[in-house]
Every structure is written in structure tokens, then in C-alpha cells.
Amino acid sequence: MLPTFTMKVVGNSICVEFNAQIKIAASDWRKKEKDCYLKNGSCVLQELLALCDGNCRVPIRYFSAIEINNAIKNSQTKMELADVSMVTGLLGNRPVLVRFNKWTYNIHRDIAITAQMSHLKNVLRLIGCCLEFEEPVIVYEYVKGISLSDLLFKKGNLNRKSSLSWGSRLRVARDVASAVVFLHTEFTTPIIHRNIKSSKVIIDEICGVAKIVDFSLSISLPPGELEVQDQACGTMGYVAPENLASGISTQKTDVYSFGILLLLILTGKDVYDIIDRVDSIKPEEKIHFGEDSGNSTNSKETIVDFKNLPTSYVLLDHYIKEANVMDITDPIILEEHGIDIQQQLEDYLDLVKKCTALKGDNRPYMIHVARELCRMEKSFRALALAISAQMSHLKNVLRLVGCCLEFEEVVMVYEYVEAISLFDLLFKKDNLNRKSLCWGNRLREVASEIVFLHTEFTKPIIHRSIKPHNVMIERHCHNIELLTLHIITSRGIGEKTIVRRKKEHDCCLKNGSCVLQELLALCDGIPIRYFTAIEIDKAVKHSTTKMELRGVVLVTSSLDNRPILVRFNRYKFFNIHRDIAVTAQMSHLKNVLRLIGCCLEFEEAVMVYEYVEAISLSDDLLFKKFSLNRKSLCWGNRLRVARDVASAIVFLHTEFTTPIIHRDIKPSKVIIDDKSGVAKILNFSLSISLPPGELEVIDNGVCGTDGYIAPEYEQQLIITQKTDVYSFGILLFQLLTGKDVYDIMIRVRDIELVPTLNYIDRVKNATNVDRYVREDNVLDIVDLTILEEHGIEIEQPLKDYLDLAKKCTADKGDDRPYMIHVARELCRMEKSFRSCSK
Known about the structure:
The chain is of the alpha+beta class. The protein folds into five domains: 18-142, Phosphorylase Kinase, domain 1; 144-378, Transferase(Phosphotransferase), domain 1, CATH 1.10.510.10; 392-429 and 439-482, no CATH class; 506-611, Phosphorylase Kinase, domain 1, CATH 3.30.200.20; 615-838, Transferase(Phosphotransferase) domain 1 (Transferase(Phosphotransferase), domain 1). The chain is 40% helix and 16% strand. The protein has a six-stranded mixed beta sheet with strand order 3-7-8-6-5-4, sandwiched between helices. A six-stranded mixed beta sheet has the order 21-25-26-24-23-22, sandwiched between helices. Helix 8 (251-267) packs antiparallel against helix 13 (342-355), helix 17 (502-523) crosses helix 19 (576-586) and helix 21 runs antiparallel to helix 29. The radius of gyration is 31 Å and the shape is globular. The two termini are 54 Å apart. The relative contact order is 0.05. Mean pLDDT is 73; it is low at 1-24, 49-55, 277-305, 477-503, 515-526 and 746-768. Keywords: ATP-binding, Nucleotide-binding. Residues 45-380, 485-833 form the Protein kinase domain.
């Protein structure tokens, strides 16, 4: 029964009077809301504290039940996502998505995790929540979207053909993969999603970005553990075999579910349409959360009995292993691309096979899956890049001036023409320009450009998308121009430079070709500003300030009234071209010295960086005697320096198409910003990329600095990601001790390094830093500056730090952790130290 009330106008106000019965009912309702709020609020806070000490990356707003009811009162639009309903509403004239749950899940966990991931473009952004209902209600930022499951499987869906090109599917897979990688790597302990499936993904119809939603079944791994045993949960068909059999969850559990999602994206069929249905497997079937997994064995010793798996898993595994890719691929993909992309489809299916291996140990990690998907997506665009460079000179192809690669999708800049699309000219009603398209002008000129595609390249190129939308008519001269899809062109570095001297011309050609080759190998070319030799000479003419960094000199100067750092190299054997290419890709990171541009007209290329008022970590802070700056390097700041450098190395190892190994990590490659305290790494001239699909590369000779070189590299010339981990471990040790590696070790005639006798006399016959680290007491070797400030109160954090240095400098590469795990541990240490200091 709805409450009744009377209204009275008193002056300019309206008073509402309820009868006593209604007041009691309202009071009871408010009490219930309050109880729900307290119960749900404590649960959400508990989850937030467990995840991130209660701090949200994105602040979330609290909404009352009245606000939620008012927001959705007149809404008729909703989106069904398996177990939840998304209702479109209005909150303060702002469109939102309000989520209601059909079943009782751990919604508090969902709120806590989404709050930590809402800054990601591929996670549906959380605005706030309401805790006054029995089950909390979540409020998201509004997106005009459609669920991936509806897009893939819903019959008669008009959006399907236009939205699900092969390029779009690769992007969806990559978007989801990057969100899962964040879950696995960016929290203090990895979080396992446990319910990755197509109904948990929304496609933004405007920008095409895939956004993942619902983390209610996720679970964190215990600190230092690689797996956790819990009751099996998820959706049948997507659940990994080991989770189904024993409740074991690892990072590889999510990889299996993601592999099934990859398969569905390829085939356009639901998992239940692929496998034969049996009585035990129904589309709506779930594993009940309250059931006992039936296995109490220690998780590390659990053996999954694959013979007793449900029939559906056996059928699905057989289907994936035996299928011909052209037989199972969605016909929409084949209609658009034909057999031209058969090789890429086969590569994609191979990735599906790896992800859905029945044994978890045989599956790759998500970070490697994401990297492979990025490579595929990049490869898919390569053909269009090559075509555009050959066709922009034609008068009947809309001329491409350039492009911007800094957005998610490449933005193309065309020469301006006042034009109208052929589609609008032919089919738009009441179009006054339609009569101007006489019969003689209709498609003759378009045909000539198609002939060019078919005849003027080494191999004929098929356009595959000739339609009125892709043809533009210039308004004044009625010239027909063909707008080919996905075409890009860009200019080479230094294209407009006027070279006045022959030597400068030769240097520019030599250096320019080297830099361009490196940029293309890394990233298809990222534009950076080009400076002439005259500009550089003028900039440094009156400069007296410089910073020496062992092999390079940074000169402070100004250009166009902008302060800059100009870098000159002392030695010619550095691969400066590689350095330019890698730095250009990493300049958006706060912990990499930002590259503005370069000059290629000197014998050795000159690099121009953004100015920072800084001091070097090696000479000015750690190792320089009587340095006035040294006291500023307290323990908290040293942890921050270590974390900053680690995150830059993690980027090198994980964010490129193939991992890049730095090979020369040491304090002289790090400068500290005086104002912000951020550590910035520079100089990637010795870096090397691993071959595609390989975990190591054999070098021709050893590069790097004695004392920092990993044993396997020095002895066998083997380079892996663990090579950098060793060098970084030495850097960690130096941050702890405040000693240079050469103060700990002395050179002998055969270049071996042995401990200095005055530093450690109880370790006989020690030959490397590794032995020194393992034999010394942390309080005996720690920098006195740290002890003067903190005393023995931080003995345990120092021991934990030394343990990490020990792991990083293990003799065998396999015994060292990956940099991503090192970075995560340093973040935990820094966080713990700062919380104790408050």
C-alpha cells in the first residue's frame, strides 16, 4: 500500500503531513535501510582494506536508496548480462548504468576490485554504490553498449556484421586480456577472476572498446603462494579442469577460461553450441558456491584425474585440437577477408590451443597471451600501412597528410577537400546535389584506382570494401575520390630538413636510416622532433651546466625559450639509434627521462631530453664522499628509487611486441628529479630484443659493466629477462649499502672480481657479490645514513629487502624471480614502510 499524505502551503514552502501509521512504516523502512547499510558497508570496507589498505584509485560515491529509486523510476532500457541486469538511469541529469543482481554473489568484493580498476579504459567505470538494499546496488558510468555474448550469439542481431570484423575481434580479445593481466600483476597479491566469459564483457558501441564487468567470484592468492584452494566456482564449460576437479585456482585458471573466450570470438558460437550437450551440462548450470569440492588434499600435491572429467571437456578438447581453422571460423570473418588471413587465423587457433591445455603447467601466463594478441593485431594492420604509402600520390585517392599514433586507434589526417560521400549523394532524400552527378562522372575514376591496386603492386591487392560509403565526391569539381579503409602513411624522420653541408648530409642519412630501422622494428615508427646541427650548436653555445654520467654528458641549455638537456656520447660503440627508438616508446613513463627529439647531423646522433633539475644516483647520491645530498636518500626514498627503476624494467620486459633486455642496469643510468624525487632511467643503447616466441637469445659477445653482468651471460652468452634481474639485484644491494660495486670488489689481472679484505674477512675465496650478499649480516653492511635516521627499528624490513636482493642475484637464472614479481614486492615494502612511519 502506497503512503498517503496531505500538503499545505506555508508561505513559500510546501509542508507534507503523514499520518502516524505512515510515520511508523517509514521509520521501519529507514531502520531496515540502516541495517543493510551497516552490514554491506562493513563488508565493502573489509574487502577494500584487504586489497589496498582502504585506498581507492578512483573515489566512489555513496548513493541513497531514494536516489537510486528516483534514478530508474522512468527507465525502460536495460541490458541483461547473465546474472545481472543493467538499468539505464539518470542521476542529476547524468546518464548512468545501475546494476541489480539476480543471485547472491560476493558483491562487496566486486565493488572493492572495480574501484581499484576503474581508471582502466577496458573496465566498466564505477561511479558509486548504494548499500541500503538487501544486496548492494552498483552504479557505473553510462556507456552505450552491447554484451559480447549478444553480439556473438544472438540471432538476427543487426550489429553483428558491422561490429565484428576480424580487426575488431582481435581488439576485443586484447582489451579483455589486458584487464586480466592487471588483475594478475598490479595488486599486492595476484587476483584470479574465475569467471571470464562473453557475458562479462560489454562492447562500447561508440569507441569499440571492450569493457569487462563483474569481479564477484574473484579470489586473491595468499602472499607468496602461486595457488589457492577453494570451493570450485564459475560457469561450466569455462571452468579450468583443475578448478573443477579440486577447487585449485591459479593464474592459469583464468588463462583456460580466456582461451575458451578466444575460441568463441573466432567461431561466433557459444560453448554449448560447439560441444554435444549431455545431461550433466546445461547452459544455465553453475557449480554451487556452497558445495564441498570433494578434495581435501594439499593443493600442491593434488593430481587432477583427467579421465573423470565431464564429457563436455573431452569433446571440447578434441574439437580444438582436431579442428581445421577455415572450417570453424565465423563465416562473417571469411566473407570479409577470405583466405588472405588464413595464416593469422591459424596462429590465433594455436594460441587457443595453448590457453586451453588440460594441464595448467602447459598454459602460458596471461601477460604472454596479451603480448601475442598485440602482435597479431599489429600484424593485421601492416598490409594497409604498406598500401597507403604507395597510393597517396594518386589524384583520386584522398591524400593522407599524416597520422597520430597516440590514441588507441590510429587517427588519420587527410588533405582538406569540401566533399560529400557518394552514399549521401545517391540515397539521401531531398539531396539537392544529386542531379549534379551526371552519368559520365559516376564510377569511371574509381575504376582506375581499383586497376592500380590490381596491377601496380608486386602482388595484386584486393580492396574488399568498395561501397558508396567509401567514395567521396569533391563538391566543386565533382572529382571522385576513393577513401580506402585503414590506410595510413607517415613521413620519415628529417624529411623536411635542408642539409647544407655534405658531412651533415651523410651523417643524417646514416643515422636516420638506423633510427628509422629501429623504430620500424619496434613500433612501425613513432614520430619525434628533429633538430638541425645549427639548432643544437646554438642551444649549447653559452651553456656551462652539465652532468657527467659515465659515457654520456648531459648539457643544460634552452631551445625556443624551453629548457632542455642535450646528450652527447663520449664513446662511439654505443648503439645510439637503438637508444632513440626505445626511449621514444617509453617517454610517456614518469620514470624514464622524456625524449623530445634528436639531431642526426653529427658523427654520433645527439639526443634532446625534457629538462629536469636532477642529480645522478651514482656520483652525487650514493658513492660521492661528503655529498651534501646523500642525507636526502633516506630509506623510504631508496625504496622509491628501486620501485621506479623496477617499473621501467618491467615495461621493457612486458609492453613491447617482444621483450627487450636492458643489459646495463646500474646507478649511473639513473637520475633523481630534485623536485619530485622520481627516479628516471636513461640510456638503452645496449638493449636487445628477444626473438619472437623465444625466451632467450645467444649474443656474440658480452656487453655491460663488470660486477653487474649475470653469470650465465658472462660464461655462456645467454641473455634472458633474468639477465636484467641479476643487474637489478646488484643495484638493490648498492642502494642498501651505499657502496659502489668496486668498493666491495677489487679488480685482479684476469678481470675476476674478489671481495676486498677490509670489507669481509670471514668469507674465504669469495669471487662475486652473490657470496658477499649471502654471508653478511644486514646491520653490518647497511649504509650508516639509514641507521642514523631509523636505528634498528627497521631491521626486519632491511632483512626482507636483503632477501629480495639475494633472490635477484642467485647464480642460476631459473632461481631468480621475474622483474614483475620484484616490482610487486618492492611496492609492498614501500607501502608497508610508509604505513609504519605515519
